[in-house]
Amino acid sequence: MEASAQQGNYVQVYVMLPLDIVSVNNRFEKGDELRGQLKRLVEAGVDGVMVDVWWGLVEGKGPRVYDWSAYKQLFELVHEAGLKLQAIMSFHQCGGNVGDVVNIPIPQWVRNVGVSDPDIFYTDQHGTRNIEYLTLGVDDQPLFHGRSAVQMYADYMASFRDNMKEFLDAGLIVDIEVGLGPAGELRYPSYPQSHGWSFPGIGEFICYDKYLQADFKAAAAMVGHPEWEFPRDAGTYNDTPQRTRFFVDNGTYLTEQGRFFLAWYSNNLIKHGDKILDEANKVFLGHTVQLAIKVLSAGWREGLNMACENALPRYDPTAYNTILRNARPHGINKSGPPEHKLFGFTYLRLSNQLVEGQNYVNFKTFVDRMHANLPHDPCVDPVAPLQRSGPELTIEMILQAAQPKLEPFPFEEHTDLPVQGLGGIGGGEVEDPTGGMGGEVQQDPTGGMGGEVQQDPTGGMGGEVEDPTGGMGGELPPTV
Predict the structure, then answer these.
(1) Which residues belong to the active site?
(2) Can you give the residue ranges of every domain in the chain?
(3) pTM metric for this prediction
């Protein structure tokens, strides 16, 4: 294939590093083990790795007291291996979500503020606090030793930039993913298992801290309804829509008050993302990095670069083939870029189990297929210097931009570049447009590890959306 086709069909593959790659004591103690694992990733043709950079570790000792030493050691090892790096600004707690094996809370000195003012945390209608992430109600409240939440996040990112300058200048760090909520996602903690939620419960509205309540009352007063309050008929965590008066067909969500509440709830989330992404854009302006966030979004429809990850580890060909089918829904295009293709995929997560035996053979083949059976190319999708974002969009403009532009498109039944190995796949052969021959693959009845952005039934989102403007999230569809 020509270079243009390579650019179009090649899907970058990253591997997520273990949650405890930097210990809960902010120490890098797994250098020897990681060095061997990174060598195996390089041999498999992987493009890079992704890592959480935990706020609770780096600024854990006090306001503006940053300790980046452990992450510097880690980054040096990744640089030595010749891999790219995606760094996540993780402003949330590690622990309590599916797959969390360690507990890293947000900084203790921040939580101490919550002792006297527990409303800094998201709160449900029962008064239960969620300490995984600060409520967006304190985004602009100078409650944290004179700083607001947004200012703390901005200062953290600026310190990262200054202390990791050598790695930014060397081109090691290519993506900065900005955490915007629970599990790093732009959402409310509406379905925490720690509060008793279980699938498929509808969850609850989480806006009962005093700051968001005051914001809602002020917004309602501005439209002439100071008497309006939050819904009282939206059910509890494990209800179904039919058991509520709010969500049932023709429910109270359709009333003037219900529509107003939903618009306020959603728009505040969008504004939260806008504020923090704008700060990130200013911090990394001019550096050769891209900004990324995790959202529930039909990103292809909106023309955004989409990168996704699997919800749970899988090592079998059936799962890999599901990802491949989702990564290029219509397969290889020998004359140019496919109409729809993932920008990148992150495998969750690095372990000895992944890089040994048949699991490694399957994974290496999977990476080859994601690369469209082309040689590993570190220059695919080069990163340009980050530019300043445009002016902030109004909510009306955002909602208009989020209207569907394409009809849903069908996926091919099978991938045209299947992975074969232990685990068994269906018979028959399909032509490999790059010259190889691959067997047809049975569709995974469990859904496998889907590469497209879709909600994980455990509550986690398996994807992220890259903002190609590098700026505010104004182009992103609203999350209700």
Answers:
(1) 185, 309
(2) 1-115+142-195+269-402
(3) 0.85
